[in-house]
Design brief:
about 300 residues; eight-stranded mixed sheet; elongated
Length: about 300
């Protein structure tokens, strides 16, 4: 089973310099997870972005990791480069990094919808490329990470990724064709869970519970349900039925969820996220990009999507 091939990560930190290209929410959550799990020393993690006014920059420094504004310098210092930028910026970043990428680098992209082939096409011929999807829960060592391999990656490279991300949740190899669906499920999944917890706590407050207590109980209910499902390996329907006693409160509540289309809404949400991921592929797969347009968007804080749309 993926994630169990090499168990050295259970014993010691991995001695590797990790470069996070991008310094947004995903990048800081990955850094927080790695440091808290002891996967990598904080001094061996460097984040980079030309956007030097990001709120997350102070968080990187508080964590003991480095931040620099130069992506190229970051790549020169690092072996594992994690691309944590928006898909529309990927072509520019790859053009920027291409001259200094070597056979020693391992590229792991978390840019939604951006294919391995499009990354390999922009980088030197023998570059080791992997495409993955993770989520922000890596920050608390409960992430769900998958990855697919390119034509030049070795078992040593996949071991490296599993050794790191296996410390901050689950990590397994999948076919690249599955990653868009993974994005809709576990990539976006924490947002669905937060929305559900907020709604559940609203219901509890309506019925008289204090807000903080309602949030704690709602969150713990989702944590416990997930853990029970994984540890028992029972079908969720079987576990649900065990809670629903005849004429009881739970079956009445589930009836209301069914009338509201609860399951259909979740299915639709996963589908919508997956479809949007496929649409983003166009941005990340472009062979040419207007560098000045992107730089201006960064400087002025403009909406990059609108800017790129004006060029199409």
């Amino acid at each position: 089973m993926a994630g169990t091939r090499n168990l050295s990560y259970l014993l010691k930190a991995v001695d590797v310099n990790v470069g996070l290209i991008g310094a947004g929410n995903l990048a800081i959550h990955i850094a927080q997870g790695f440091v808290r799990a002891g996967a990598v020393k904080a001094s061996q993690i460097c984040a980079s972005s030309p956007e030097t006014k990001k709120a997350s920059i102070a968080e990187f420094k508080d964590l003991g990791t480095r931040f620099i504004s130069d992506n190229v310098k970051n790549a020169e210092l690092s072996k594992l480069l994690i691309l944590a930028v928006k898909p529309r910026i990927i072509p520019y970043v790859l053009d920027e990094l291409r001259p200094i990428i070597t056979d020693e680098h391992v590229i792991l992209s978390f840019a939604a919808g951006v294919t391995i082939a499009s990354i390999e096409r922009k980088l030197p011929e023998n570059t080791k490329v992997m495409r993955g999807m993770t989520n922000t829960c890596v920050a608390v060592k409960e992430g769900a990470t998958v990855y697919a391999v390119g034509r030049n990656t070795s078992e040593e490279d996949t071991d490296l990724v599993e050794n790191l991300f296996g410390r901050v949740g689950t990590c397994e190899e999948v076919e690249e064709s599955h990653i868009d669906a993974v994005t809709g499920l576990s990539g976006s999944g924490p947002a669905y869970a937060f929305e559900a917890i907020e709604a559940l706590s609203d219901g509890a407050v309506k019925m008289g519970l204090p807000r903080k207590l309602a949030l704690r109980l709602g969150a713990q209910s989702l944590i416990g349900a997930g853990r029970m499902l994984l540890e028992t390996e029972k079908h969720p329907g079987e576990l649900k039925d065990a809670i629903c006693s005849p004429e009881g409160a739970t079956i009445y509540a589930l009836h209301h969820l069914e009338k509201g289309g609860f399951r259909s809404l979740l299915i639709d949400a996963v589908e919508a996220s997956c479809k949007r991921t496929k649409q983003l592929q166009e941005h990340g797969s472009r062979d040419e990009v207007d560098e000045e347009l992107i730089k201006r968007g960064i400087r002025e804080g403009l909406n990059l999507k609108a800017l790129m749309g004006n060029k199409m």
